[in-house]
Design a protein that fits this description.
Layout (H helix, E strand, L loop, with lengths): L3 E5 L3 H5 L2 H13 L6 E7 L5 H17 L4 E4 L10 H6 L7 H13 L2 E10 L3 H4 L2 E8 L5 E6 L5 E4 L4 E4 L14 E3 L2 E5 L8 H9 L4 E3 L6 H19 L2 E4 L1 E7 L2 E4 L3 E3 L5 E4 L6 E6 L3 H9 L2 H4 L3 H4 L6
Parallel strand pairs: 2-3, 2-13, 3-4, 10-11, 11-12
Antiparallel strand pairs: 1-17, 2-17, 4-5, 5-6, 7-8, 9-10, 12-15, 13-14, 15-16
Helix pairs in contact: 3-5
Length: 318
Amino acid sequence: MFTVRCILGTSAKYLSSFPAWRQQIKLQNRMSTSARPLAALCQVTATPDKEANFSACRQLVEEAKERGASMVFLPEGFDYIGSSREETLSLSESLTGDTISRYSQLARKLEVWLSLGGFHERGHDWESERRIYNSHIIINEKGDVVSVYRKSHLFDVELPEKGVSLKESAFTIPGPSLVSPVQTPIGKVGLGICYDLRFPELSLALQRHGAEILTYPSAFTVATGAAHWEVLLRARAIETQCFVFAAAQVGQHHGKRSSYGHALVVDPWGEVLGDCGGERPGMVLVEIDLEKVSSTRRNMPVQQHRRDTGFYHSLEKT
């Protein structure tokens, strides 16, 4: 059984103008007897204004915590989305900079876990190379950074008929490796970012190492999102028999770029449990029952039926 609660286009400021609604939320939280953890998946519209972005994300995190979430997922580019290569690089920071420090303080204050789905992290040779990583950061309820995954598949795509032209490798360093799934209050979470979604080898590797939940925080273009977003997320869930969380960017970021939205939660059977839509920021909250992972894998033991690696490479020997 799952409880899904969709909240679209809300903020702490908006809710404060409706005290009766806020009191009802608190009453619902007190009355809840479920032992299952609650996770919040967020959808935002980041711009080059880092302060405005932090304010919007903070309000969503505070709202999620008030509604009982133990972990909150923010999308790729939660810190900002620049309007040019130069602006993107100039706004970047190190992991010890102000942005991650503020999110660590927020996590500690609210006692909530955070998935920060795509941070513009300055590379190790920043002074000489001026290149960045696209980094997915997990912060625990004490404010500690417990995992950092650097995006390994970079979005270099030219689709002139769709109006899509992006070359992420022009300023981003590909991550050197996957990272082990992280034990969190909602389950064991395997980390990816956006374009990684198109590579099932990554999701299967994370599943083999214990992932019960896969997460793909994203800023999908409108054209590729409309064509492939939901089908890819459902495919990753079905083939790994994991929950899939995909926080998303939505709407117009600046004059040159917009995102598809539709932040989704998918269960291990491939059913969409929540969708934030394609119009505005918001969140979806979902109770996570890990027995759904166990029962799906038990009833259809796909991983036990998988042949050894050599079998899948046998064509290369002929």
